[in-house]
Every structure is written in C-alpha cells, then in structure tokens.
Amino acid sequence: MKIDESLKKEIEEEMGKIQAPSSLYRFAANIKEESTKRVHSDKPKRKKRWRKPHFAAAALISLGILTGSAFLHPTMGEVLAKLPYVGQVFQKPIQEVMMEALVNEGYKPVSIGMGIWQGIPHLDVEMNGTEEYVNQVEDNVLRIVTKTLKKRGYDNYEVKVSAMYEESAVMKKINKEREELAEKLMRDLQVEGYSIMNVNAYNPVVKVYIPIGDEDKQVEIYKAAIGILKANGTPKQVQIVTQDISEEEIKSQWMPITRSIEDEFFLKKEYQVADIRYSYKAEKVSIMVRTNMNSLEAEAEGTVTKIRKEITEFLDSEEIKMMTENHNYEVLILDSNGKAFPF
Amino acid sequence: MEQKTLMKRIRSGDDEAFAQLVNPLIEKGYRTSFSILKSKEQAEEVVQNALIEIYRNIMNGKDIKFFNTWFYKLVSNRSIDAWRKNARSKESPLDIDVATDKYGVLQSILQEETENEIKKGILSLENDDYRNVLILYYYQEHAIQEIADLLELKNSTVKSHLRRARIVLKKRLIENQLIEVSSQ
Predict the structure, then answer these.
(1) Do B55 and A19 touch (CB under 8 A)?
(2) For B117, how many CA atoms within 13 A lie in the half-sphere containing its CB?
(3) How far is A63 from chain B (nearest CA, A)?
(4) Residue A275 forms beta bridges with which residues?
(5) Which chain A residues are closer than 8 Å to B55 by Cβ?
(6) Which residue, A39, A48, A77, A190, has most beta carbons within 10 Å?
(7) What is the pLDDT of residues A204-231, one digit of tens each?
(8) What are the residues whose beta carbons fall under 8 Å from the beta carbon of B80, sequence distance 6 or more?
C-alpha cells in the first residue's frame, strides 16, 4: 500500500535524526565487566511473579557492591556489622539483616543486590539452587524479606527472587585463567619496581591501574606489560589507567558509611530521595542528595531539614568520626532539578 | 561474520565478538527506545539493560534463531515497560477505541490533534499509544497482534490508530498539493 510506504519512509526519516550515543558502543565492548556489575534483569517467564513486571537495575548504588563481586560479601558484612547505632536512625545494613533472616529460616541465599531503577530501589535475592527450587521457595522468601523491610519502616522498594547465575564450566576455566594472568602481570610489574594498584585481564584489552603520580611512567609500564604478556605466551593489548590513590582510599574508607545513608534514605518514601552522589576529595567529602521535591512544595522544607539533621548527626557521632578520621564533609540537599534548596 | 559464529565466540569468552554482533543493531534499537521514552537517559539505560540481558542469554546457551528480530523485540518490550512506569495513571481520551466513538467532545480533541500532526512530525505526537503503535508497526515492523499484546490494547484499537495515521497522511498530501497549486 503506497500510503503505508510513505508513512514508513516518513518515520524512518524522523528516526534518522536521532543518533545513538557512543557510550552504548563502549558499553557493548565492555559487556562482561558491565554484566558482572549489574543486578540481573528480569527474565520474561518470571513476569507474572513480580509485584510489578520487568525489573532492570539502572545503577548500582555504592554499598560495597562495587568491590570485586557485585553483591554483599560475607567479609564486608563483618565490617559492616561493627557500624554503630546512632539513636534510632542508622542500623545494621539492611541486606545483612535480610540475609540473616533467610539463613535463620533455613534458606541459603547467595547474595542480595540492590540497584536503583527510576528512583525505586530494586532488591534481587539470589538463591542457591535451580530455577525449579526457586519457584517453590519464592513466596516464602518474599514474605521473610518483606517482613524484615517492614520492620525497619522501609516502604520504597521492589523485590525479586532469582536462581544464582551459574557460569558454565568453560567460562569458569576461562575466568580463572584471566584472574591468574592479572595476578601474574601485577606481580611481575611490581618486581620490576613499578607501583601497580590493580590489573584487570577480563577483556581483550588488559587494564593496568597505576597511581596518578606515576603518570610520566605510563609508556615505560606499557612496554613492560606488553613484554611480560608476550613472554608468558599470552600476548594481549594493554591500556594504562591512572587513578588518584587518595581519592580511592577515602572512597574505600567511607563505603560502609555511605551504605548506611543509602539504606535509610532510599528505602523510605517519606524522604523522597531520587539519587545520592558523592565526591571524595582530600579537603572534604561531599554528599549530594537529590530529592523528588521542589522548594514550592508544602512539605519540602520540613523534609529537607530532617534529611540534613539525620545525616549530620550520624556523621558527627564519635564512632563515625573515628572511622573517617574526622574528615571534613558537606551535605547538599537538591531539588528535583538538581538545584540546592534555599533552606 | 555470521551471527552463529559470533555467538559461539562470545560463549568462549570473546567480548569483542559481542560488540561485533550488536553494534549494527544499536542505532535502530536506541532510536526506537528514545522515540517511545522521549528521554536520552532512559533510552540509554533501557538499551544497556537489554544488552546485558542479551549477553546473559547467549552465555546461558539460549538458542537464538533470528537474532536481529529478537534483539529489537527485546528493546521494544523493555522500552514499553519503562514507558508504562512513566505513564502512571495518566489517561488520554484518545486511548478510547476511535472506531466506536463518533460524537461529542472527543471530536474536537481529535480535530486539534489531527491539525498538529499535519504541522509537526509523527514522533512529536502527544498521544503515547498512538505514537508507539506507529513506531512499532512502521519502524520495528511488529505484527498488529504483537503490538496489541505489548501495549495492552485491543486489536481494533491498533488498527484504528493505523487507519487514522493513513487518513492524516492523505490529508497532508492533499494540503501540500493545494499549497503547491495556490502558489503557482
């Protein structure tokens, strides 16, 4: 039909004006790393089990999730368990509490991940077992997890239960080889006298992380890395990446603290928090809390004051000051457009 | 390189093969998502999540026969899911099956919308369902039943939207002809 062809052509012409961002192509090139960072997407056949269909995590919030594995690790849990109680506000990390509740009921959760999708935290409870097993236990697991969240007064979340993603035997072997290669390269470069912060050998291009202070040695280190890989019989491309050690150290120090803040403010509707970002500088750490409100809303001032008071009281407590070594900080509360509130 | 071969390479750990497989499809996928969501950030997020889902399905050994079709369907589905979350309870009077409504207030709304369509492009249509039907039918070449399922509309509604688009385009062509005639 001629009209159909014309309509198709018109739509295609309009679409032609839209350009895909280059970041998507970079994302595809780095898919393995991106995949291990993200919480699992929903699978179509599980649609009917969700409270709301189709979960997809947009961004991981910095809850210690970004250290190596994507989910709460037992050792991190030990560190976090030592976080102090401050009044009634900040408590044990909620993921740890949920894990404990499930274990107490005889279940074997592998991990609980949390990501933010369109302002709502999505929790993914990964269980050890087959999909069939997960189908059987799902309702009970959801009941336990929801009860735990309700007890804290959390009311802003979506939950899903999934079977642990099992790597194939082939992939396990390949990943092990890549890990060993990264360790070897890091060791050999350090033996040659270079300061190496980390090596990532998961992708065709091996990334070698060095302190920003050694920027002038980039070419030298690059050549050394290429040489080591060739001699090892594993020639690969290499990229040298500089990192600011002091920023990384501060970030690592603050991780359990920012985690506590995020639990409290993301999981409660009353605060209307859309996003929390940080900047880690030697002079000060900035905590930027973006809300869904604007300054003209009736409850804005009260809510903003409450958020600021609670974060400040927490950070000024003796225990937290010791953890951060009394590092300077600032708290900025922003409206839905990213502008600071006038109060 | 053939898609089957690329998928085999991906399963054996070759990330480059994944980029080779999906790069030719990213542009169209993003355009669809952006047109539905009208937001660069959300469209990018949806496509990223779709890429991860695709990667995991390949790694899990899923047998994919028509990769391109599957890719675009996944992106369309996820975009509509996101759009649905955005829409909340907003309801446009034009969501009503046009074929059954002939009189009243709706007429004036339709009239205004038709005039807007003549002036602006299809992608700037205010009625989300109508716009999404056109994108999914003409750009992504989904079948009517698929579109009805995806958007949770009746088949007759989808057909009405398509019928209306054809009428509008005809009207526009006639208007353009009149303009050409009068300027001679």
Answers:
(1) no
(2) 27
(3) 20
(4) A290
(5) 31-32, 35
(6) A39
(7) 789 898 888 888 999 999 999 999 999 9
(8) B36, B132, B150, B151
